[in-house]
Amino acid sequence: MPSSTGKRLLLSRILSALSLLYPVLVLVGLRYLPPGAIVGALGIVLALRLALGNRGSAEIVLGIAVAITIALLGVSPMLAIRLHPVLVSLGFAALFLHSLWSPPVMIERFARLAEPDLPEAARPYLRKVTIAWIAFLLANAAIAAWTVLYGTIEQWTLYNGLISYLLMGAMFGGEYLVRQRVRPAP
């Protein structure tokens, strides 16, 4: 029988997966549910993440995005559910941007999780990587917004549910390769 901690971790992973699958769930869900029900389910996922004790930057960004999405339901339900990925990208871009003026920069915070005694010489590089992520997130938001305004629901799902994740993976992988080249030998 799994421990309480194990159950919480499993639930947390399931909720994260549901968050990542949001565009696909929207495409499928719209066949059976009204847009308000989909946004309500998104709100429930966020509430469960918060109930599990996840109260980091990601939950703040997601919370703001969900609140705006709920507010937009009254204006246009389809716009509300499709705008969510745009809001999330913009929220993370704002968070990373804010860290440029409130050090340590976001990428340094992540790096210190794996390497607490990060050398001071790494800071300029980590700042550049943070700036690169801001540019990526803004470009991602712009493309996602294009799919909202001009794309079909299938194009929106393809970009926001697959292509954007592949591009993110390429960004992570590319940064890893660059870091291996610029990192001094031990």
Report on the structure:
By secondary structure, this protein is mainly α. It has one domain (4-182). It has 8 helices and no strands. The protein has helices at residues 4-20, 22-29, 35-51, 57-72, 77-101, 106-114, 123-150, 153-182. Helix 4 packs antiparallel against helix 5. The longest helix is centred in the last third of the chain and has 30 residues, at 153-182. The radius of gyration is 18 Å and the shape is globular. The model has no long low-confidence stretch (mean pLDDT 87).
**How big a fraction of the residues is strand?**
under 5%
Supply the number of structural domains: 1
In sequence order, what are the helices and strands, one letter per element?
A: HHHHHHHH
The largest sheet is: none
Structural class: mainly alpha
Shape: globular
Helix content: over 70%
Summarize model confidence as the mean pLDDT.
87
Q: What's the total helix number?
A: 8
What separation lies between the terminal Cα atoms?
44 Å
Q: How many strand elements?
A: 0
Q: Radius of gyration, rounded? A: 18 Å
Low-confidence stretches: none
